[in-house]
Structures are given as C-alpha cells and as structure tokens.
C-alpha cells in the first residue's frame, strides 16, 4: 500500500459566499459534477485531482467560487466544453433562487422510480414525491361515493368499459395533480427543488397551474415511455421477482390496461406540449433535463 503524503491529507477549508467554511470534500464536489452527465468514477477522479492539486500548491483556504472555476477548467480539459459549460450554467441556475419542479410521468413498469432516484442524486433534489402516495392520502379524506376513481389504480380507471373516453382517469389525475401542485408550491416557497413521479398527473397540468399562480419555479415535465411491449412486460416480471411487495403481479394481470394507460398519457402529452422520452434508447436523460431547466431559466450553457 502506498503511503499517503501529508500534502494529500492536509486540512483544506472552503469558504462559501455566505461566510461559512467547511473542509474540502471530494464527495461533495464529485456529486456536484454529476449534473453534467459524466459517470461517478470520472466525477470522483476529477474531484480528487482538484483537491490534491490545491493541497500540493500549498493552499489551506480557498473560496468556493474558485473551486468551481477550477472544476470547470478540469472538465473542459479532461471531458469536454459541453460538460464544462453545463456545470457552470447549472451553478448559475442554483444561485438564481428559482427552484426546480421536475415531473416524471409514465405508466407502471417503465422505470420511473429507478430513474427518479438517479436523477434526484445527480441534480441535488432532496424531495421526491410519488403520486401514488398522494393518492393514498387523498383517498383517506375523500370518500368513494364522492370520487370513486380515486380509489382505483390509474390503469384500471383509464380502461373502464363504462368510460371509454377516459374522463374517469382525468378526474382522478386532476384531483391528484391539484394536491401534488400544493406540495410543489410548498417546496418552492421553501426554496427547495422537488421531483414528482408517477402515473397520476395530467401532462402539462403542474406547469400550467404553477404559471397561473405566478410561481417563480422552473417546471420540467417529461413522460417516460416503453414502446416495446415485450421489454415492458419483462420489466414488470423482474419487479415481481425482485420485490414481491410491489404491485407487479397486479400490473402483469392487467398488462393491456397498463399499455392503454401509456397510450392515454401519450395522447395528453401531445395535446399539452409535454415531451415523451423512450427509456430504452441511448438518449441522455440527465443532459436533456438539465438543458431544458436552463432554457426555462433563460441560461445558455455556451454563455456560462
């Protein structure tokens, strides 16, 4: 084992713009670099290199802004100008005071929960709200006689033979969207980013409602889809085997209804200007979300 030099372990204090200080952390810096879309090992390598360089140069105190500048220079040299520009632009967005409300919609089994967990970590979002949890709360206070659709899973509502036009799903989604909007508005008031994830939102509804209320938030809505039915069924089957507590069996038993729900969400997304993302493609989701967030805030990565 190679011995660790004193230069690599010397205390390095980082002073932020609020006048507080903390020891330099490879983990914190690496996490902030993930927003560019690079992989965690690369982010940790860059953060470690920067810390070692600062200590080797005799630094014991440094401003956080200088750390960010050096991180951007390393990204530019080791990864590319696009990633460096995205990193600088994201820092500028974080200092605007405009919270992000990110909405991930999609039918059961397309991979929303896994992507939400990954995105929350990369974007520094600490509030993740599943719409299924919102539905469970609402159904305890709104009786079945008042809104029966609220007491059924979304995929069962959308394919009811008594309601071929999906008005029941719209009533359910509108009720849950109203509650989810209130949750988002509370997070925005607290100055915090929030991620809403689930099948129970009307595509475009959160954005329209927050705009009407004059919210300063930047709202990004994205519908996740799986075009390949076999892959969709396989993912639900894997869920059943890996986590029996999840409702995968029910979704497999009503697979046609789950696919019909995806069709309904696609129809609503097209009508309301919400982009659909095919999760089985190689399209870079993190970069897409970050770039749309920056565009919504009027920030250009190229000019950052």
Detailed description of the structure:
The protein is α/β, with parallel strands linked by helices and 304 residues long. The protein folds into two domains: 6-94, no CATH class; 100-303, Rossmann fold (3-Layer(aba) Sandwich). It has helices spanning 6-9, 26-33, 40-56, 64-78, 81-94, 112-123, 131-141, 154-158, 167-189, 205-212, 229-242, 248-253, 255-271, 285-296, and strands spanning 13-15, 21-23, 61-63, 100-105, 128-130, 194-198, 218-225, 275-278. The radius of gyration is 22 Å and the shape is elongated.
Annotation keywords:
2 domains; Rossmann fold; 5-stranded parallel sheet; alpha/beta
SSE diagram, text form:
Elements: H1 6-9, E1 13-15, E2 21-23, H2 26-33, H3 40-56, E3 61-63, H4 64-78, H5 81-94, E4 100-105, H6 112-123, E5 128-130, H7 131-141, H8 154-158, H9 167-189, E6 194-198, H10 205-212, E7 218-225, H11 229-242, H12 248-253, H13 255-271, E8 275-278, H14 285-296
Parallel strand pairs: 1-3, 4-6, 4-7, 5-6, 7-8
Antiparallel strand pairs: 1-2
Helix pairs in contact: 2-3, 4-5, 5-14, 7-9, 9-10
Instruction: Tell me the strand percentage band.
Output: 5-15%
Q: Any idea what the shape is?
A: elongated
Low-confidence stretches: none
Helix content: 40-55%
Global structural class: alpha/beta
Task: Spell the H/E element sequence.
Answer: HEEHHEHHEHEHHHEHEHHHEH
Q: How do the strands of the widest beta sheet line up side by side? A: 5-6-4-7-8
